[in-house]
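The protein record filed below.
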Amino acid sequence: MNMDSNQKLFNKNFIIIGFASFLMFLSFYLLMPVIAMYVIDEFGASASVAGIVASAYIITSLLARPLSGYLVDRYDRKKFYLLTFTIFTLLFLGYILATSILMIFLTRVLLGAMFSMVTTSSSTLAIDVIPSKRRAEGIGYFGASTVLAMAIGPMAGLYLMDIFSYNVLFTIAMSSCVLGVFIAMFIKTKPRAKAPHEPFSLDRFYLKSGTSIALIVALIYFMYGALMVYVSLYVKESGLDINAGNFFLFLALGIIISRIFSGKFLNRGLHSTILQIGIITLIIASIIFVFFLNPITFPISSLLIGIGFGCSTPSIQSMIIELAPASKRGTANSTYFIALDLGSGIGMLLGGVIAESLSYKAIYVIGLVLSIIAFSVYKLYSQKDYKKRYLIAHQDKN
């Protein structure tokens, strides 16, 4: 399916899948800061119950990842993508028709599973239409669609909530998905050979050879998950007169800047170098964010955190994909997202417990320590393990 004869990165299919992905993520992030408030305002839920409902999608997303990778590899990727995207869209009716907290909770649970399916299939489909020689660069640019949605969605959701009712906001989010499904229908793909039936094994659902690299993204994404949920509370705890919402703007800007400048180096095979630069930048930014936060360092550290994640995550995703044959790209992508979901999910779920026992600052101190551990694990083990497994994988391909 790769268009190696045409090395143009921004081909029609790549643009379509990127825009459709943006619309899907936009609908998701529009509601990210709203659900907890909705459950409290409309159903009188406590803050703890609201937090459980808002984060319910994480567990099912994580549980569905291995299966989603297998299904993406097993069946026609475009059809699977359109099917799961359509179901994901229809589930927004659960918000509009909800009459109880239980209905909202079940909607979040089902959306988590479908979110896993849609994101795994869309990213795998994107990799299929990226010229192989520009794959790492393309993965970085494709990820920018998520970043833009993450930057625009939460602020737009809060703004629209002040103007319209919750149901209108849910309808707007659903409409974004409807448009995304319509656009995705115009993706053109070449038929793939039917995947051979393989005996049952863990590798059908999870790429075992990518474990040591996936561990790195799980460790650094604890910080990411904590930032998504608790950054405004951390700023408030610090007593600073700062608009915490600007964090997401600078984070997104940092990620986009990193994708522009790192893409060419990733194409040259410098994944390890860019990954290490990314983690080191993340560590430095976290030190500033945790110990030297003030109105001047806030945007600087936010930007550097974005650059750190923007360099490290596409490097890791590309490295994992390089360990898998084309027939297991979905499984490789699923492995990457399992690690990402696990790290960010733990950051979201345990962050509240840590803050309640210690402080919000303590959450990010732990995130900083985990980033340092990630760099150490990579230098002492994962780097060598990856080189060995990469040679084995490419000998098998040859």
